[in-house]
Amino acid sequence: MLGSSDGKPSGNPLVAVFPYIRAYLMIFIYVRGERGHKQWITAISWEPVHLNAPCRRFVSASGDHDARIWDVSLRKCVICLTGHTDAITCVKWGGDGVIYTGSKDCTIKVWETSQGKLIRELKGHGNRVNSLALSTEYVLRTGAFDHTGKTYSSPDEVKKPVNHVHFSPDGQWVASASFDRSVRLWNGVTGKFIAAFRGHIGRVYQIRVYAVDWSPDGEKVASGGKDRVLKLWMG
């Protein structure tokens, strides 16, 4: 299933998927070879290209409570980020050079990437943090299982867990996916609720299918759910 705001179709989405498939394969190979993570891998994020042009490093998150920074050329873990008390569910490598990790322990931790030191801990969610999204201005939005999605609110209140959030490429919009079978559009600057897209008959697990999320023109959003249907929402 997929949900998108208004817009025009753009290109073949499979092109965007392939790099992420390779990333998952690489992480599988390196983690197994290095015996780094002790449990399942929940998420990965590459170091932004403007920070390190060859894109040699990425970070992996795991159910073992740790996140690990891997060097592709060295084929090994170079830094382990330790501090969460439960499984890490999501991770983002920010454009400002820091790593954000969200966990079932209801916290978000911010790490520097040269030595893996904890910079900050963000608290406020009443249940596990399931998703992280960063805008181009480095604004952090989170999706949690406390039904809040942080400060966002809408007339048609979200009654089920918010499972995934994602910024549009221009940072102006945020789409959230919920177990109430809806995809919701919000103003990424003010947090104002814009619209709810409905049509799924099962839980909406992600706004994106693999790596297909907002289209490059910022006019479409894709969502996938338990009903195994893909939906594209266009205005």
Automatic annotation (TrEMBL):
Pfam families: WD40. SMART domains: WD40 (SM00320). Gene3D superfamilies: YVTN repeat-like/Quinoprotein amine dehydrogenase. It is found in: Nucleus, Nucleolus. GO terms for biological process: ribosomal large subunit assembly. Keywords: Membrane, Nucleus, Repeat, Transmembrane, Transmembrane helix, WD repeat. The keyword Membrane applies. The keyword Repeat applies. WD repeats lie at residues 34-73, 81-121, 162-196, 209-235. GO terms for cellular component: nucleolus. CDD domains: WD40. Its main location: nucleus. The chain crosses the membrane at residues 12-31. This is Uncharacterized protein. It comes from Hevea brasiliensis.
